[in-house]
Amino acid sequence: MRLMISLAAAALGTAASAHVTVSPSQSAPGAREKYEIRVPNERKSATITVEVHFPATLRVTAVEQKPGWQAEAIRDKTGSLTGVRWIGSLPPEQFTEFGVLAVNPSGGGELAFTAIQAFADGTKIDWSGTAGSKTPAARVRLSR
Q1: Is 33 exposed, middle or buried (0-12, 13-18, 19+ CB in 10 A)?
Q2: What's this model's pTM, rounded to 2 decimal places?
């Protein structure tokens, strides 16, 4: 019985800590990479938009057009792709993944992908915090 209670508590703790993530979590400097942005919905309201801002040093060449979602490019003054807003509907207790093709910067370090997840009830989560915070940005480590 104690084992079942412990397992249930662990599962609840894990579910409550889910956040927007990017995989792979490690890549090589200068590499061409397909990144998957995973978005879980643990709220009681549908996720209706996911807006992702790319690291300034990452050169994004394409974003995935996912069935049931509309992708809107976010560009800077020079026309460079700096983010994307996916508009659709993700019901509670489900997740989805959005693909991004990119070229990593030539130097090592860390890439931070920030995101804003908006819900049908009008609430938002800003996934731009530091590692270990309640709302961390998704991070990728670049190393050889």
Answers
A1: middle
A2: 0.86
